[in-house]
Amino acid sequence: MPEVNAYAIDSPTGRYEKTTITRREPGPTEVYFEIAYAGICHSDIHTARGEWGETLYPLVAGHEIAGVVTEVGSEVTQFKAGDRVGVGCFVDSCRECEMCKAGDEHFCTGRPGTVGTYNSIGRDGEPTAGGYSQGITVEQDYLMRVPDEISLEHAAPLMCAGITTYSPLKHWGAGPGKRVAVVGLGGLGHVGVQFAAAMGAEVTVLGRTLAKRDDGMKLGASDYVSTQDADAMKGLRASFDIILCTISDGVEPDTLLALLKPYGVVINLGLPESGSASVNLGRLINGNKALAGANIGGIRETQEMLDFCADNAIRPIVEIIGADQINEAYDNVVGSKVRYRYVIDTATMG
């Protein structure tokens, strides 16, 4: 079985250290690929630091993964050695339930349920380990093909940040004639702005300050407003068809609901540590507004998103780091000091 270098953390207050992990030889329908790049998602940090419930330590995080196939099982038909591929937030599901058959494997209701790329238990009974490593074995049905137009370092963050913003914008009809607000220009928001603009919507960014205004405009926004500017926010009331909120705190749902047109929707992507927020139901009822959530997408839609990025020149803005910088990178993400996605070069794992 392949033994690969990896970086793992062993407690909520621990630090990532170099280690080795064993990957299984690919079974008949499995693919083994060498990981080239792995993005750092805020979900990795929440999990590593024990902020979202039980964590299976030692943890090898990472669910924004891109690399090149080196070995395939005897019954694999979709991929071959040399193919450029990616893995997102999950690596298995039951494949038989209503959700799986509809292409929504991330909402699997059967057994074993949706198996996370890390911090989950796979069909082999072993904890799953993610992309902070140099190789991984995955069932072919849970891989995406990376279009030739997209470099692997840019493909990696799209496996989570990309699909997390693309899916709700598509579902709620972002397009010509629609006004979309994106709250927060961070790892998710800076990709969401590009998607909404490419879909044909008029895009406004709502940020705490105007520090990232130039970036927002270059990415496709037509306006950028500080949420701390009371007069500017008041002027935006009843303005938007869709509000995509990519932050977990800082703007109350009631404030965003006031910015919607009748029949508009606030889509929340950020999850507060407490998991709860209060909402004035009158704000929903007055105008037939909706408050929705969104949580990644299925394999088919993720591939669709990658192809859309290739066709529309959408790329995350990344900062390549070495594996020995993961701990520092985590602190920078929490402190909003990254523009806009850290991506680990796994070659630095030695």
Your description of this structure?
- Helices cover 25% and strands 25% of the residues.
- The chain is of the alpha/beta class and 350 residues long.
- It folds into two domains: 183 residues, Medium-chain alcohol dehydrogenases, catalytic domain (Quinone Oxidoreductase, Chain A, domain 1, Alpha-Beta Complex), CATH 3.90.180.10; 133 residues, 3-Layer(aba) Sandwich (Rossmann fold), CATH 3.40.50.
- The strands form four sheets. Strands 3, 4, 5, 8, 9, 16 and 17 form a seven-stranded mixed sheet that branches. Strands 12-11-10-13-14-15 form a six-stranded parallel sheet.
- α5 links the parallel β11 and β12.
- α3 crosses α4 and α3 packs across α9.
- The mean pLDDT is 95.
Which structural traits does this protein have?
350 residues, alpha/beta, Quinone Oxidoreductase, Chain A, domain 1, Rossmann fold, seven-stranded mixed sheet, six-stranded parallel sheet, 17 strands, 25% strand
Whole-number count of domains:
2
The CATH class label of the largest domain is: Alpha Beta
Query: CATH architecture of the largest domain, please?
Result: Alpha-Beta Complex
Q: Mean pLDDT across all residues, rounded?
A: 95
End-to-end C-alpha gap = 19 Å
What structural class do the secondary elements suggest?
alpha/beta
**H/I helix tally:** 10
Shape designation = globular
List low-pLDDT spans.
none
Strand residue content: 25-35%
The CATH topology of the largest domain: Quinone Oxidoreductase, Chain A, domain 1
